[in-house]
Design a protein that fits this description.
This protein has 142 residues and is mainly α. The protein has one domain. The protein is 57% helix and 6% strand. It has a three-stranded antiparallel β-sheet with strand order 2-1-3.
Length: 142
């Protein structure tokens, strides 16, 4: 979620440059950036993820791998699950291999954010309004 891609301009970045969010980041795929509410939700999750990383929260790789493998099995054996994942692959324009990388990355992000929220007094709903002080914390390039 925080990486450098010199050929691509960040859609959101901290003013001090310590964190950037790019269109190809997994959290962005799941959101419609043209929808203001959806954008704010995505931004809230990303900011929470950045804070969780700063606090040292990490996902359990074994748990993440188990989840992805279970989803792959369901994808191969359950028509509803296959339809769900195929729809998302098509929507995101990803190959099957890239899609499973996306699923892993998105599940990692969710795991980190949920652990952070479970272990702090922060409520994700508090992070979705003007109290974010977005203008102070980040620069938005849509």
């Amino acid at each position: 979620m925080t990486h450098s891609a010199p050929e691509e301009r960040a859609i959101v970045q901290f003013k001090d440059g310590s964190a950037q969010l790019y269109k190809n980041d997994p959290i962005v795929f799941a959101h419609d950036l043209s929808d203001e509410q959806d954008f704010k939700i995505m931004l809230s999750w990303w900011l929470t993820y950045v804070e969780a990383q700063k606090a040292g929260v990490e996902a359990d790789d074994t748990e993440i791998n188990r989840y992805v493998e279970q989803e792959k099995i369901l994808y191969a054996t359950d028509p509803e699950t296959k339809e769900h994942h195929t729809y998302r692959m098509d929507r995101y324009g990803l190959s099957e291999d890239d899609y499973w990388k996306h699923v892993r990355a998105n599940n990692t992000l969710s795991s980190v954010v949920n652990q952070y929220l479970d272990n702090t007094n922060v409520n994700i709903d508090q992070l979705q309004g003007p109290e974010l002080k977005i203008a102070v914390a980040v620069i938005i390039h849509k």
